[in-house]
Automatic annotation (TrEMBL):
It comes from Camellia sinensis var. sinensis (China tea). PANTHER family: OS02G0537100 PROTEIN, PECTINESTERASE INHIBITOR 12. The keyword Protein biosynthesis does not apply. Belongs to the PMEI family. This is Pectinesterase inhibitor domain-containing protein. Keywords: Disulfide bond, Signal. Residues 1-30 form the signal peptide. One of its GO terms (cellular component) is extracellular region.
């Protein structure tokens, strides 16, 4: 049996997803698509901020999401959030070097780079906590990442007329993490029901 402390988190994620029962039958694929639709619908019914369409368009294009279960979907959402975070850090670094921004925007971008930099290990740790079935710890870490995306966006509105160049990235990160949190909530709820 492999143990995540000996491997990187992405490698553990791949091992975990491939360890799930998979077949290529159309029935399983249809059930998986239904799982995505049902999960996104249940999450959007629970929250006014949850975006059903974003959930579908984020999860459905990922091939592994069609041959997985609820736990696998949560991991896909967390992995997408981690990818978004690292991509956004690269974008911010390019913006900082571009010379296109005024001093206030540059300060905001530097703050955002720091926030996203803190988000990377938090997301990696949330994946580790989730794999260890420490769901409350995973949700706590994910919630902090959501807050950091909001903080980055809010920093730009402190000065009137300043537009955030990271609105899409912040929104995408917030929503990807929201998907993961909702799915982890569902898994936690299902676990409690099974125990009672």
């Amino acid at each position: 049996m492999w143990h995540c402390s000996f491997f990187t988190i992405p490698f553990c994620l791949v091992l975990f997803l491939f360890s799930l029962h998979r077949t290529g039958s159309p029935i399983v694929n249809a059930l998986s698509i239904d799982l995505i639709n049902t999960t996104c619908k249940q999450c959007s019914d629970k929250s006014t901020t949850f975006n059903f369409d974003f959930c579908l368009t984020s999860l459905q294009p990922i091939p592994i999401s069609h041959v997985t279960n609820l736990q696998g979907l949560a991991l896909v959402a967390m992995e997408l959030a981690l990818e978004n975070t690292t991509d956004t850090m690269s974008s911010i670094e390019k913006m900082l070097k571009s010379g296109e921004f005024d001093p206030f925007a540059l300060t905001c971008l530097k703050d955002c780079l720091e926030l996203y930099g803190e988000g990377v290990p938090m997301l990696a740790n949330s994946i580790g906590a989730f794999l260890a079935e420490q769901y409350d710890a995973a949700k706590l870490l994910l919630s902090v990442v959501m807050e950091e995306a909001s903080t980055c966006e809010d920093g730009f509105v402190e000065e009137e007329g300043e537009a955030s160049p990271l609105t899409k990235e912040n929104s995408d990160l917030f929503q990807l993490v929201d998907i993961a949190v909702c799915i982890v909530d569902s898994i936690t709820f299902d676990s409690k029901v099974l125990l009672n």
